[in-house]
Design a protein that fits this description.
8 helices, 75% helix, mainly alpha, 181 residues, globular, disordered N terminus
Length: 181
């Protein structure tokens, strides 16, 4: 009887992981949305005239790479939860005042909308998870930097480049869960 209960529990947990891995949106739309985000960031960067080389700025935006290493070792649901948090935190960051940035307002709005949609759809593919505190603190540090530098075009360009790198890493993380065709 106990082995049968364990078998049922194991089957349910495997079904849960399999369900997240076979999420139709993730299988069919994730790549499209990811490419759209990166394209919008590219367009936003085309208008840039960044000149910020300050080491304090570079230190503040340096991402704790160990978080991606940990996420890559996590379960499928853990990987998705990490990706969702990166997307949520990114959307929150770009909702701040970026009127001094060199990009057009509607491009930034489109970017936030696509990132938010992507986060919402990925969230529906996984269960609930605790937020990663270190990841949250990283994005809080970016937000503080933007405020400290008075939302300047230069700081937004540094942030845009960092976010592009994060979204590419997040894409790789989620893509590792997709079936290969």
């Amino acid at each position: 009887m106990l082995s049968r209960i364990l078998c049922v529990c194991l089957s349910l947990s495997l079904f849960s992981v399999a369900s997240s891995l076979s999420c139709r949106w993730m299988d069919h739309k994730f790549k499209e949305y990811s490419e759209s985000c990166l394209d919008l960031l590219h367009v936003m960067g085309n208008n840039s005239t960044n000149s910020t080389e300050d080491s304090e700025v570079q230190d503040a935006v340096a991402f704790p790479d160990d978080l991606y290493n940990q996420a890559s070792q996590a379960s499928a649901e853990g990987k998705l939860a990490f990706a969702v948090q990166v997307l949520d935190e990114t959307a929150g960051l770009f909702e701040e005042d970026h009127s001094s940035a060199s990009w057009e307002e509607n491009t930034a709005d489109d970017f936030v909308n696509v990132v938010t949609q992507q986060a919402d759809e990925l969230r529906s593919c996984t269960g609930s998870h605790k937020r990663n505190k270190k990841l949250h603190m990283y994005f809080k540090r970016l937000s503080s930097l933007v405020k400290r530098m008075d939302h300047s075009a230069d700081v937004w360009e540094v942030v845009r480049k960092q976010i592009k790198s994060h979204l590419m890493s997040t894409d790789l993380l989620v893509s590792s869960l997709l079936p290969t065709n």
